[in-house]
Amino acid sequence: MRKHLIALVTVTLLACSAQVMAADLSTDMDTIADNYGKIMKTSDAKAFTDGLAKMKAAALDAKNDTPDKLKRKAPDSPEIKDYHHGLDTLIGQIDKASDLAKAGKLDQAKKEAEGFKATRNENHKKFK
Fold it and tell me: For position 5, what pLDDT does the model report?
């Protein structure tokens, strides 16, 4: 009986922690914006790549949510696909900037990161 109770409590805690781990869309966007500001100010490659990693994780999590403007759209609608494409574009840019930073090209990585703004602006017009 005791083993079953411990197993039940463990499963419950794991399920709850998974739900807490997933942020809402607004939190994900705030994480991206906050870390963007940090990476653009740093001259430390590790801090830069750490910030990019947080941005990428938030962008990946954002793909699991839908902007309010698209809540009534079908998951396979062109609008939802376009929303996911925008996040995929950002994730690709993050990966490219991260690769440059890891190769010791922080200045080039920052130039790549400046392109994040255009991606943000384009997609905010459509989905915010």
Answer: 45
Instruction: Specify the pLDDT at position 10.
Output: 59
Tell me the pLDDT tens digit for each residue of 54-95.
999 999 999 999 999 999 999 999 999 999 999 999 999 999
Q: How far apart are CA 92 and CA 119, in angstroms?
A: 11
The distance from CA 37 to its chain's CA centroid, rounded to whole angstroms, is: 15
What does the CA dihedral 34, 35, 39, 40 come to, rounded to 10 degrees?
A: -30
Residues 6+ apart with CB under 8 A from 86: 119, 122, 123, 126, 127
The structure tokens 């005791």 sit at: 2
DSSP labels, 19-56? HHHSPPHHHHHHHHHHHHHHHHH---HHHHHHHHHHHH
Calpha distance 48→109 (Å, rounded): 9
Rounded Cα distance, 102 and 86, in Å:
24
Q: Which two tokens mark 22?
A: 């997933």
